[in-house]
Every structure is written in structure tokens, then in C-alpha cells.
Amino acid sequence: MNELLLIVLAYLIGSIPTSIWVSKRFFGIDIREYGSGNAGATNTFRVLGKNWGTFVMIIDILKGVIATSLYIILPSTYIGSGSDFELHRTNFMIALGLSSVLGHIFPIWANFKGGKGVATLFGMAIAIQPLVAVCCIGVFLFVLYLTRFVSLSSILAGVAFMVFILFIFNERETLYRIFAVMVALMVVLTHQKNIGRILKGTEGKVPILKFRDSRKRRKR
Q1: Any residues with CB less than 8 A from the CB of 219 and at least 6 apart, and which?
Q2: Distance (Å, rounded) from C-alpha 205 to C-alpha 159?
Q3: Kind plus residue range of the DSSP H or E element containing 155
Q4: Which of 68, 71, 72, 116 has fewest C-beta within 10 Å?
Q5: Residue 81 to residue 66: CA distance in whole angstroms
Q6: Are the C-beta atoms of 162 and 178 separated by less than 8 Å?
Q7: pLDDT of the chain along its 220 residues, tens only?
């Protein structure tokens, strides 16, 4: 029962609609009615600018970190002990993290219409496997610097997460390996429209690193 309550709490934390509350409170709009219509950090960057986009992204990441770390509330006897501790802890953290991601995508506080869950997934990864998460963030920032496409950066970071878990760090926990594959598939599937727009050349770039593009134009 205690585990179930924490999973529900993780969902409620994930359901906090950061971009929606920010857009309504400070701009008098619903972010879902502008840009791509998505209630995530990417659309916030596009519609409200880099400062609010960064704020929303950080909060959405923290939702994943906090929700996934709720396992610390339980006494160790609930999670396991000895050789089983790490296995049970990881499995329970994955359950908590996925619950928060589900909350982000289908938030109870915003009529079940939320974002794509990428930032919250990253927060979940930070809580479970910090080193892998740092590597994925590096991939995200590198691609963002090169392209200014948050969507493409998110897709490649999600695929990199799977590659890191399966091949580079060679994680042996079966559930974690399955989770890594699910993350890559989910990120690609939830960004199908973005992929289409990238291929057509109509995907919007976020308003950051514009100085680099301006410098290139001047050189020409």
C-alpha cells in the first residue's frame, strides 16, 4: 500500500503543468494555444523565450528527480535488503519515474493534456543513473548548439540514453535495459510531427545562440 501511495504521489508531482501555469500567470495565455500546441519546455522556448523556457525545463527535470527519489521515504524493509536491495530499489525508482512521466504527459491538473515528457524523463535518469544522465545532457546540449532544434536534441539524447545503457555502460539489470529501449522508442514516437517538420525544413528553432547565426551571416 505504501508503495502504491508513493506511485500516485509521483504521478501528481509529474502532473504539475509548469508551462501552462507560467503562461497563464505571467502572460495571460494558455501555451497549448500557441506554437506547436504542446505544453512542454520546447514550445515554451519558442513562444515565451529562452528565460521562461529554461525555467520550465529545469522545473520539469526536477519533477522527475523528486518523484523518482520518493523511494527514500520508505523504510529499507519495504525495498529489500542485502543483495536484493539494489535490484528492488532500481525497479521501484523506475516505477516512480514512469509514473511522473505519465503525469507530465497526462496531467490531472490540466485536463490530461500535457507535454511529451522528455525533460521529466531526464530528471528520472538523473535520479537513477546520474553519469548516464550527464552524458545524455551533453548530447542534448551539443546537438542544440549545432542546430537550435530542441526536438532533434531531445530525440538524439533519448536514443543516446539507450546506447549508453545497453552498450557503453552495459547495465545488467533487465528491467533497466527494457526501460532504456522504451525511452528511445517513446521519444521518437512522441516527436513524429517534429521529425516531419525537420525533414520539410519547417521546424522552428529556439531563440538561443542567435549570435552564432548572426556572426555566420556577417562572414558571408
Answers
A1: none
A2: 21
A3: helix 150-163
A4: 72
A5: 23
A6: no
A7: 588 999 999 999 999 999 999 999 999 999 999 988 989 988 998 899 889 999 999 999 999 999 999 988 876 555 555 557 777 888 889 999 999 999 999 999 999 999 999 899 999 999 998 999 999 999 999 999 999 898 899 999 999 999 999 999 988 888 889 989 999 998 999 899 899 999 999 988 876 666 555 555 555 5
